Structure formats: C-alpha cells, structure tokens
Amino acid sequence: MRYTTIPTTSRDEWLELRKTRVTATDIPKIISGTEKAYRSLWSEKRGDRRFGGNRYTKFGKQQEPVIAAQVSEWFPELAPNDQLLVSVDDERFAATPDMIGQSMIGEIKTAKSPWGFIEDLPRHYFLQVQWQLLVTGAESCLVAWQGTTEVGGELRPDGDIRTGFVYPDEATFEQMRRVATEFLEFTPQEARDLSGDFYASHLLSEVLEIDRQIGKNNAANRRLQDERAGLVAEFLRQFGDEAQVVECGDLVAEVSGPKVTNRFDRKGLAREYPDLERKYVLQETKPSTVKVKSNG
User: Which Pfam families match (predicted)?
Assistant: First the structure.
C-alpha cells in the first residue's frame, strides 16, 4: 500500500485536516454532481454547518469497536485505525478506513436494513470503499456489517456480523479522480454542475429496471420492492423529498412530495377495546384452492 499518515490527537484536529481534502464521506455527494450537494458540502468544510449525527450513527460508533474486535479475530492482519491517510499521488485525497492491514483495509457498517451479500452493498458505501482503496493503494477492502433493530426504544445489534471483499475498480477510480478535482476547483459562487448527473441516472435506471421486472415474477416481488425502496430513499436523500421534477439525461423523475394519509389502527382498537373489536370482526369462508404440479 502507498499512503502518508497524518497523525492527529483529537477529533477537532482530524476534522480540521479534512476541510481542505476530499474524503470517502464526501465522494458520494460529489458524484451526485448537483449544485445543492456542492454548496452543502462546502458549508460543512467551512464549518458553517456540521452533521452532528443521529441515533443510528451514534449507535454505529458504539458498535464499531465490538465488530472490529471480531474482525481482528477472523483477520489478524487488520487493526483499528483512527488516523487520516493521504494519497501519495494527490495530498488533497484522504480517507480514514476503520481498519488497516499490510495489504488490505477494513470498513465497518451497521445498517437499519442490512443487505444480504457484498454484491448488494449500497452504491454510496461502494463509492466510499472505492475511494479508500484509491487513497491507500490497498489490494482489497474487507467490509464487515451487522443489522440494527429497535427493542423498547433502544437500538440493538440484529443478526450475525457478515463480511465480504470489495476490490479496486479502475473505471470508478478514473471517475472519482475527475469529479474530486473538479469539486476542489469549485467555488460556491459559481452555479455550475461540474460532474453531471451520473449518480442520479444510475439510481433512476435501477428503479426503472425494477419496475419492468415487478409483476413478471410474483415470488421475487417483495425483494424487488425492498430494493426499489432503498434506491428511492437514496435518490431522495440526494435531491430532497419536496415536490419537484428532476431531469437526468433521458430520464425524468417526478417527486410527489410527502403526503399525510389516515389509516385505521385495528391493532390499537383490539388492544384498547377488545370486545368491540371482536363484535365487528366478520368471518368468512374462502373456497379451497387447487394447485396443479407435474410429477414428471
């Protein structure tokens, strides 16, 4: 691996060093290519605004040492890291992988809706990992992830820790170098969209393909609906959920905006007024169904 380490003694010092550099957290926002994303990121780097985290990110930070300890047992080469690493090719490119080894790096994620396999790694995580690989020159990145569930108002780990490898992708490297350089040359006063709508087009193309598949295979519909919901959530995270029309190349996304709807809370009625709920529940007998299968 080829990189330079910039030692830091505090989080504030670490944050200060990141202000003049593009990091793995920045790259998905930069690839979105929108002026809104650029301005928001520049505001963060100037210190005008800072994401203070939410209950899920804070829980992730708490779980990170636990997951890292298990990963170190499985892969003794990897050790926890909290230092800023800088590319030897461009000192403005930096990253802080969660773990570092001699030839590979490690990244730890906790997820509200965990993905099943490394091939299903969400796009923004994939871009973050690719940036870390670019900065460090590592041969691979071991991604370790675990689900998160809520019990009695408290977040807890859900399921086993899973792992998978991500390898360098030269086409992604080339794109990231270009958009990162363009971003570093961007000034907030210029209303420019330097890197285009590649990320948005990718998300919308995936949604369109899923819409074509839904209905053709009923057994896969639930999985497809979940995948579609994840893509839409990422698109709205990038562009906002207010009513709008977003044009991305030859694709157009019409965002309706959030709507308030009313629904009948049958479980609540049954809990508070069980006798009343039973009184008005109607029973009906459905006819038998027959499924015909070939024994051949």
Answer: YqaJ (PF09588)
Q: What share of the chain is helix, strand, coil (3-state, %, to 5)?
A: 45, 20, 35
Tokens standing for 35?
A: 């002026």
d(CA 254, CA 203): 14
Instruction: List, by residue range, all CATH 3.90.320.10 domains of the chain.
Output: 3-196
- Which distant-in-sequence residues (6+ apart) come within 8 Å of 245 by Cβ? 252, 253, 254, 255
Q: What burial letters (b/e) apply to 227-237, b meaning 16+ CB within 10 Å?
A: bbebbbebbee
| Predicted local confidence at residue 4, as pLDDT | 93
Predicted model pTM = 0.62
Torsion of CA 111, 117, 119, 123, to 10 degrees: -10
All residues at 6 or more sequence positions from 294 whose CB lies less than 8 Å from its CB, including other chains: none
Q: Do residues 275 and 257 make contact, with C-beta atoms less than 8 angstroms apart?
A: no
Write the pLDDT tens digit of every residue in 114-149.
788 898 899 999 999 999 999 999 999 999 999 888
Widest distance between CA atoms in the chain: 74
Domain at 3-196: CATH code: 3.90.320.10
Tokens of 68: 């890292």
Beta strand residue intervals within the chain, DSSP E: 3-6, 79-80, 84-87, 94-95, 99-100, 104-111, 140-151, 154-166, 244-248, 251-255
